[in-house]
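Section 5.1 Outputs to date
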Amino acid sequence: MKGTRPEQAVLSRDTDMSKTDETRAVIETMVDGLNDHRIADIGEFFSETFSWRGNRGCGTKTGLREFQDNWQKPFQAAFSDKVCIDEARLYMGEWAAAFGRQEATHAGTFMGIAPTGKRVEIRYMDFWKVEGGKIVDNWVMVDFPHVLAQLGRDVFDGQGWEAFDTGARTPPAP
């Protein structure tokens, strides 16, 4: 790369490493709360004004109420019997990250698809910033294309780059 390099890791550069155990406790109890399907009292873990930033198809939620009404409730209506399984968690001061999957039953309309009753895997990555014992920021990536594929809809219309994976079919001609 020529020229001046962009500044890196601005948000986490000055994290207070003494807060690692507090951050871990907040995240671990919050995940338990989500697995208990808590909505009304989820403010125990999230600041009233926290920011939830999701990828395309998930949206951005500002504040606890918007998160509850425009993410948690619709998500739980679409997917019942949901369990969250973090496959890895990392903690660094006021920051935490995890990736994993949720296993759930497609029990309500999702992205225009009527309930199928299928058991699905919902892969995700989360990054959290914790201040004062509560989550103040949450960056989220939810693999909705994977969920939709399990429900019979290929959002890439057969043009996904899986074609380039080892052992995959021959890529289409340009």
